[in-house]
Write a structure and sequence with these properties.
Helix content is about 45%, strand content about 15%. It has about 150 residues and is an alpha+beta fold. The chain has one domain. The chain is globular. This is Mutator-like transposase domain-containing protein.
Amino acid sequence: MDLPKPIFHSFYDKVVNDIHIATKTICELFMKTSVEESKKLEKAEELTVSGDGTWMKRGYSSLLGVSTLISFYSGKVLDLIVKCSYCKTCEFWKNFEGTEEYDEWENKHSDKCSANHNGSAGKMEVDSIVEMFKDLKHFITYDMVIT
């Protein structure tokens, strides 16, 4: 990031957050454009896609997984979802459960929690693909056939 030394941790966190917001915005813009391009390429009532997932660890024991939906004809990524079964902050606050501070924290944290999946690692891919199909229907004006 080519930042001068020394740097405060709070400033570093702000820079990383700004980079995250910018890259997420650009990614969403490109994926939306990819959906439009795929619709033009196919010129059909159905959009042919391929879904695939990968995990942080091999096998079905990973706490973190990424799934993508790819256009068959253009080869471009139409959507991407990251699923996680663990939140370090929730783990820390688990010890304070039942206190007023915990209730206050829980209300603020629920929108930011990194744990967005319950269940096995193998089910992460399935849940993600279903979620992406539901999201894609907002971009596409015709029905999609899942095969």
